[in-house]
Amino acid sequence: MKKRTLPHLSGKGRFVCPVFFFLLLAALILPPCRAEQSVGGSSSDVHVTIPENYSEDYRYSFDVIFYDMLFTYRLDSISYNSETGETFVNSGVWLMEENPVTTVEIEVTNHSDTPIAAEVKTDLSDFIECGASVSEEGLNNTVLKAVSLDQDEYRAESGSRKISLGIYPDYASYKGAKQIYATVYVRPVDGLATNGRPFITSIGKD
After folding, report:
1. Which uninterrupted H or E stretch holds 129?
2. pTM for the whole thing?
3. Residue of 38, 31, 35 lying closest to 50 (CA atoms)
């Protein structure tokens, strides 16, 4: 499994929408934007979108770490109900690049000198349609503190969205590739800056 990182992405601006809008695996419809460009690797499946209307000049920097979230299901055994004639998945495992996987994570690390809030929204329709239950936790408008410099030690706070895959899809629809699409929103929030002073943003307060 290849972990992918968008290293120290940064930008300037005051945004009515989130400061950065990440579309992983290019599936959702992007709103009108000032800039849209491929980032990291040679594929076009990662886009950074910066909304057009901004006025406040400030710089933010953070990493987004994720995997290529394309899955197939390896069916190991089935069960058969002779009374109803139904066939069920009895055992199997999801594979990512031929590697068994039960959970995946999307991680955001704040390298800014002010706090940010990060949120991940996912499209799990491929898994829902094949009857596989999926659970999620983490990075739900989570505040990540500003970088800390304690005796010259650099500390950047991270948060992650954990996605757990159900192991029993429907027998009739388990075949074929299944994909998870994720949108990561990042915005500045009030809090302590790296220099220990209060930081107050006007973004989103109009």
Report:
1. helix 125-129
2. 0.75
3. 35
